[in-house]
Amino acid sequence: MPLFGKKGGQKATTVFFATDVHGSERTFRKFINAGKFYKAQVLVMGGDIIGKIAVPIIKEAPGRYRATLQGRTEHFEGEEALKALRDRIGTLGFYSKILEEDEFQELASEPSRVDAMFHDLARERLEAWVDLAESRLANTGTKCYVTGGNDDYPDVLQSLHRPGAESLIACEGKVIQIDDAHTMISIGFSTPTPWKTPREISDEELGLMIGEMIAQVADPTHCIFNFHDPPVDSTLDTCPMLDWNTDPPSQIVKAGQVVLHGAGSKSVRQAIEAHQPLAGLHGHIHESAGVAHIGRTLCVNPGSEYGEGILRGVLLNLSGGKVESYQLTSG
């Protein structure tokens, strides 16, 4: 059957899902353009959308700058070199701020101001992304649904909730009717990690949150579970086991081999097993891209290579309460 063929005369809905862009400008722009490229009516961004680092660019003299990026200090001259640097920083998912030498020294001694600057830069980029989505998707019929992840700060995520926005919808905690036959619920919180990220809760709390959302769904078998945390031991959550007592957390090695384990959520798996939704859309574990079936439910983690500007995703073709076909993508 063709990937996006129609069955029984029913109109199919194409969903494109990606996740864990972590602030990458190039990757997010590809995501917004994916609707047109893949002829998808629905775009879903599954969490961890905010970057992790703000890079200060020090103005040493008119037209001369320096910056430390990925452990290496580099010097730049001219506006073209400055633009190329900021573009590279943006592709990596980082933020940048041009500072005079004295401003940089003052900030370096005040962590609270550094933190406030980071949050301001993150909000600024997120607001620009909302602008981009509203502009690119206007009058196309494509809707873009976005949720935060465990790495995303709640105050920054408020920028997604723009009054009057028509194309980009903050979907977390809501039951979304994506077409006449299918719904979607979204939760971006994760179970605890060694990094103590902003939106972590216990697996028990996550289970309660999931239960409250499912209770609002008329027919879970026609619903997509867009949960950032993947189901435990599903192959979508396989990653190195870490020693939480070291700083930073280090990989556990036995007999010369890195120990791997399933780092996903028991509550997510139990909810999928019990309710057998249409599909599970997951992320969080970048290196564990793949597809798994839990009963009738197709569960997907497209993985993430955001720092290279690569958009990894999955296309789902939905019709009559079924995933008629799917395809992992990368580009």
Question: What is the makeup of the main sheet?
Answer: 6 strands, mixed
What is the radius of gyration?
21 Å
- Would you state the CATH class of the domain at 13-49 and 141-330? Alpha Beta
Helix/strand/pairing class, anyone?
alpha/beta
Average pLDDT rating: 96
Straight-line distance between termini: 24 Å
Give the strand line-up of the largest sheet.
Answer: 8-7-2-1-21-22
Annotation, overall tally of beta strands: 22
CATH architecture of the domain at 13-49 and 141-330: 4-Layer Sandwich
Poorly predicted runs are: 1-8
- What fraction of the residues are assigned to beta strands by DSSP? 25-35%
Here the CATH topology of the domain at 13-49 and 141-330 equals Purple Acid Phosphatase, chain A, domain 2
- The best one-word shape is globular
Number of helices: 7
**Elements, N to C (H/E):** EHEEEEHEHHEHEEEHEEEEEEEHEEEEE
Descriptive notes:
The protein is an alpha/beta fold and 331 residues long. It has a domain at 13-49 and 141-330: Metallo-dependent phosphatases (Purple Acid Phosphatase, chain A, domain 2, 4-Layer Sandwich), CATH 3.60.21. The chain is 27% helix and 30% strand. The chain is built from 7 helices and 22 strands. It has helices at 25-38, 79-91, 101-108, 111-137, 154-157, 203-214, 266-275, and strands at 13-18, 42-45, 54-61, 64-69, 72-77, 95-100, 143-146, 168-170, 175-177, 183-187, 223-227, 238-240, 242-243, 250-251, 253-254, 257-258, 260-262, 279-281, 290-294, 297-301, 312-319, 322-330. Strands 8-7-2-1-21-22 form a 6-stranded mixed sheet. β3 (54-61) and β4 form a beta hairpin. α6 (203-214) runs parallel beside α7 (266-275). The longest helix has 27 residues, at 111-137. The radius of gyration is 21 Å and the shape is globular. The two termini are 24 Å apart. The model is unreliable at 1-8 (pLDDT under 50).
